Amino acid sequence: MFGLLVLVQAVLRLADNHVCQTQTAADEHLLGSLNHSTQLHQNRNEAGSSADTRRVDWQSVWEIMTAQFLLGGAMLLYRADFAVTVSERYGTSNTTNGYITSLSSTMGTMAGFAVGHIADTYSGNTHRLFLHTAVMQSVCLLVTISAPTLMLFTAGHVALAFVTAVGRVASMQTLLVHGCQQHTGTLIGTSASVLSVARMLAPTASGVSQELLSYHGPALLSAVLSLAGTIVLLVIPSKTGRKAHAD
C-alpha cells in the first residue's frame, strides 16, 4: 500500500512538471509574438514617417523660400548699421535716430493689426499679396537710398516698416498654401532656418559693402537683394499654377 502511494505521488509530480513546462513554453511563445508584432509596428511607423518626409514637395516651395531669403536678407542688411548710415548721410544725432526707429516700430505694430483686413481685400490670394509687398519693399528701399532730405528718408523708412510687417505674414501664408498641409511644421521650421542663415550673413555682408562703397554700400546691396527676391516671385505662378491644376 505504501509503495502504491509513493508511485501515485511520483506520477502526479511528473504531470505537474510537464504542465509547468508546457505553460512556460506557451508564455515564451506569446511574448515572442508580441515583441515581433511591436517591432513590425515600429518599423511600419518609421517607414511611414520616412515616406511622409519624402513626400514633401520641395519643388513647389523652393522659389518662395528663396524669395524669403532674399527679401529677409535685404531688410536685415538694411538695418544692420542703420544708425551709423543715417548719421553719416544726414548728420543726425542719436536722439533723432531713436525717434525715427520708434516711429517705424509704431507703424509696424499698426500694420500687424491691419494685416488681416489687408489680406481680406486680396480674397485669399496670398501669393499676389506677397508679390505686391515685395515690389513695395523694393520701391521703399530705392526711395531711402536716393532721398536727398531727412524728411523724405523718414517717410520711406516708415513705409518700409509697414510693408515688411505685412510681407512677413504674406510670405508664411504663401509658403503654407503652396506646400503640403500635412508638413506644416517642416515648412515653418525650414523657413525659420533659411531666415536664420540670412540673419547670420547680414552683418558680414553689411561690413564688407560699407568698406567698399562707404555708407551707401548696405543700402545699395539691400535694394539689389530685394529686387532679386521680387524677380523670383514673378517666376512662381507658372509652376504653382500647374501644381494647383494637378491637385
Would you give an account of this structure?
89% of the residues lie in helices and 0% in strands. With 247 residues, it is mainly alpha-helical. The protein has two domains: 1-48; 61-246, MFS general substrate transporter like domains (Growth Hormone, Chain: A). α2 (62-80) runs antiparallel to α8 (216-246) and α5 runs antiparallel to α8. The chain is globular and about 55 Å long. The chain starts with a helix and ends with a helix.
Structure summarized in a few sentences:
By secondary structure, the protein is mainly alpha-helical. It has helices at residues 2-54, 62-80, 82-90, 94-121, 126-146, 150-178, 184-213, 216-246.
Q: For the terminal residues, how far apart are their CA atoms?
A: 90 Å
Annotated CATH homologous superfamily of the largest domain = MFS general substrate transporter like domains
Amount of beta strand = under 5%
Label the CATH architecture of the largest domain.
Up-down Bundle
State the helix count: 8
User: Overall 3D geometry?
Assistant: globular
Order of helices and strands: HHHHHHHH
Structural class: mainly alpha
CATH class of the largest domain: Mainly Alpha
Given as residue ranges, the uncertain stretches (5+ residues, pLDDT < 50) are 1-12, 47-53, 240-247
